[in-house]
Design a protein that fits this description.
The complex is a heterodimer.
Chain A: H1 6-21, E1 23-31, E2 42-46, E3 52-56, E4 62-69, E5 71-77, E6 87-94, E7 99-101, E8 104-105, H2 119-127, E9 146-149, H3 163-174, E10 197-202, E11 206-211, E12 217-221, E13 238-244, E14 247-253, E15 274-283, E16 286-294, E17 303-311, H4 328-331
Parallel strand pairs in A: 1-7, 1-8, 12-13
Antiparallel strand pairs in A: 1-4, 2-3, 2-5, 5-6, 9-10, 9-17, 10-11, 11-12, 13-14, 14-15, 15-16, 16-17
Chain B: E1 14-20, E2 23-29, E3 50-59, E4 62-70, E5 79-86, H1 104-107
Classes of the chains: A mainly beta, B mainly beta.
Chain lengths: 335, 111
């Protein structure tokens, strides 16, 4: 009797199972616009009900999403840092028993500004596999101290703006975001969600964010004080925080209307802006931050962003003096 | 800045901190030669600058700061300054954005 190879049997068995269960797969390779393997990016398949299956691309940028019920999906690759823009392909059909090949080329996402290198993914992958519990401070609170690599919300929801704000935002977009505050060495986005490094210094009564962009620090007071009455509006505002069990809730008001909010979107806002950020550290490697951005004079409903920062204990924030050698205007697509 | 929008001079300043009894000794090197040192004095210096600060809290209200600046490329002997800082618990540092509205050149005695 001729023997059948066990591999062949397994393959037949596997494909029979796929067909039986009405399931299929999507596989392919993700590359950057410079044809480098986009190792470490997440590939998502969202079904019609909104359920997301995801997988991380391997060191060659290859991915395989298996066991997907036959149907129509949106395939997406969330933005990673400022290196790669979000990719989304709707109406991808998965057939039972078949593997669809889908190769994805990501586009750059920084409006032609320099700094467009592979550093983000390189550093992200270096720290992606840290395991362990979240450390605690001597007084028993979760400890958020250290250097973190921030990233944007992988699945940002659309922002609904009042007519004046929509008009102002479209004006900014049509002029390739000319005049954004950071291009003139003015402070960054007070929602603290830019996909760069932040360093957190935590004490029982104070939490400080340090960062490379102006103005380089943001204080959050944890000593029980309230927001002062009649605050003079500032770029970073006034932030107080309180613990709700293991969640630190930061509350910011007193903001001027000059900052542009959220990386690559650059929303306008008024002085009524109110930012509530909820920080939790589920494990050693991750800080989850849920940001609620309220401004009844700008947004139809509050804007939510859910970001995850990666602990990067071997990194350090650099001294960066924007006013000394600002190349932004020189390299901007809008001249 | 690794992913940012500007190319900047990167200064690696390493602050080595060593507590000696009740004194915190802060040691800083890795300076560029662009800063002007000491308020109202404006001293030049080289990249050999080495700064040693000794912090000691005398009592509730006072911090003793002993500063030593070494730079054999600039000073014939190290410069020392001895200062006492007053605790100001009801005050807060304010946001100051120099790039927004810099009046210094306009008001400076030398134009």
């Amino acid at each position: 009797v001729r023997q059948v190879s066990p591999v062949v049997v397994m393959l037949l068995f596997a494909s029979a199972l796929l067909a039986q269960a009405g399931r299929g797969a999507i596989a392919g390779r993700v590359t950057t616009d410079q044809d480098d393997a986009a190792s470490g990016v997440t590939v998502q398949a969202k079904d019609m009900a909104g359920k997301i299956s995801s997988v991380v691309a391997n060191k060659n940028g290859e991915f395989r999403l298996t066991n997907l019920p036959a149907g129509i999906y949106e395939i997406a690759v969330p933005q990673m840092g400022v290196r790669t823009a979000r990719y989304a392909q709707p109406n991808v059909t998965v057939e039972a028993g078949k593997t669809l090949t889908l190769n994805i080329k990501l586009m750059p996402n920084n409006f032609g500004i320099i700094g467009d290198d592979g550093g983000f993914l390189h550093i992200y992958n270096k720290y992606a596999n840290q395991k362990g519990p979240a450390p605690r401070t001597r007084d028993g609170r979760p400890d958020f101290s250290g250097v973190w690599l921030a990233n944007v919300d992988p699945n940002p929801t659309p922002v609904q703006m009042l007519p004046w704000a929509q008009q102002e935002w479209e004006r900014r977009r049509d002029r390739a975001f000319e005049g954004m505050p950071t291009s003139r060495c003015l402070p960054l986005d007070p929602t603290m969600t830019l996909p760069f490094f932040y360093k957190i210094v935590q004490t029982p009564t104070l939490l400080v964010h340090l960062f490379e962009q102006d103005p380089h620090y943001r204080q959050a007071f944890l000593d029980g004080r309230e927001h002062p009455k009649d605050l003079d509006p500032t770029w970073m505002g006034h932030t107080i925080g309180r613990w709700e069990k293991d969640t630190l809730v930061l509350d910011t008001v007193g903001l001027n209307d000059k900052s542009w909010l959220l990386q690559a979107i650059w929303l306008p806002h008024t002085e009524k802006l109110h930012i509530v950020s909820r920080y939790t550290r589920p494990d050693l490697a991750h800080l989850n931050i849920d940001v609620l951005i309220e401004d009844p004079d700008t947004f139809v409903k509050p804007v939510e962003r859910h970001v995850q920062w990666l602990f990067t204990p071997g990194e350090e924030i650099f001294e960066a003096i924007c006013a000394e050698n600002n190349k932004f205007l020189e390299y901007s697509t809008f001249k | 800045m690794r992913f940012g929008w500007t190319v900047v001079l990167m200064v690696v300043a390493a602050g080595a901190v060593l507590a000696q009894g009740g004194t915190l000794v802060v040691d800083t090197t890795g300076f560029n030669d662009k800063s002007w040192l000491i308020f109202a004095t404006g001293l030049p210096h080289t990249e050999m600058l080495h700064m040693i600060e000794r912090f000691r809290r005398l009592d509730l209200g006072h911090l003793q700061v002993d500063l030593r600046l070494e730079d054999p490329g600039t000073f014939t002997k190290p410069v020392e300054r001895h200062m006492t800082w007053d605790l100001a618990p009801g005050e807060e540092i304010l946001e100051a954005i120099c790039n927004e509205n810099n009046k210094f050149p306009e008001y400076a005695g030398v134009k």
